[in-house]
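re: the backbone from monday

yeah here it is again, tokenized this time
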């Protein structure tokens, strides 16, 4: 899991802020290499150093950097595979939310060794939901908030997202769906168009 996260953060920083910033992050974090293999396991301390160095170089909070990265995972044009995997969750944003508990199993169909944290959604009625996830590192829930924000935009839904106090070591995200048809969502077809 951490290899995949580290590589995603690397790609985000390179694409959004350029290779020079990435090299400064590598130096600041004291990494013995300048690129991550997504399917390898890494020491969690290395991930913490990477996040800290990224925040220092960008002059942004941990929450901001991780949320921006989560948004980029879905919204960047070369991440359509992940977007497609997530959109298979349903035709509406609420359907998508209800499919999140199945996401770790769906992801393992593509990558059998991928160990995503379990997700638990509670539908509290009236458009209120809470989503719990056991974080693999401190602040991981903000990546999920960014991803949820991008998916709400993808569906055209108006949604409020906030990090609630943790429960039993799990990150808890408060979700309020205000309007599922607030804007026109991005086009999505089950079949990929032929080249």
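seq for it, each position gets an aa:
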């Amino acid at each position: 899991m951490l290899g995949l996260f580290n590589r995603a953060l690397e790609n985000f920083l390179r694409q959004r802020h350029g290779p020079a910033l990435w090299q400064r992050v590598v130096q600041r974090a004291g990494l013995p290499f300048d690129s991550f293999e997504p399917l390898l396991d890494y020491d969690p301390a290395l991930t913490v150093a990477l996040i800290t160095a990224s925040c220092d170089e960008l002059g942004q909070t941990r929450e901001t950097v991780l949320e921006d990265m989560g948004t980029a995972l879905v919204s960047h044009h070369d991440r359509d595979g992940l977007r497609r995997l997530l959109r298979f969750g349903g035709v509406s944003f609420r359907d998508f939310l209800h499919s999140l508990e199945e996401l770790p199993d769906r992801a393992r169909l593509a990558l059998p060794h991928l160990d995503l944290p379990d997700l638990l959604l509670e539908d509290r009625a009236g458009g209120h939901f809470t989503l719990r996830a056991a974080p693999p590192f401190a602040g991981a829930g903000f990546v999920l908030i960014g991803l949820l924000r991008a998916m709400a935009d993808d569906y055209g839904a108006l949604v409020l997202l906030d990090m609630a106090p943790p429960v039993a070591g799990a990150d808890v995200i408060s979700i309020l769906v205000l309007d599922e048809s607030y804007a026109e969502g991005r086009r999505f077809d089950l079949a990929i168009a032929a080249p």
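The first helix runs from residue 2 to 17. The helical segments are 2-17, 19-29, 44-58, 62-75, 80-87, 93-99, 103-110, 140-155.
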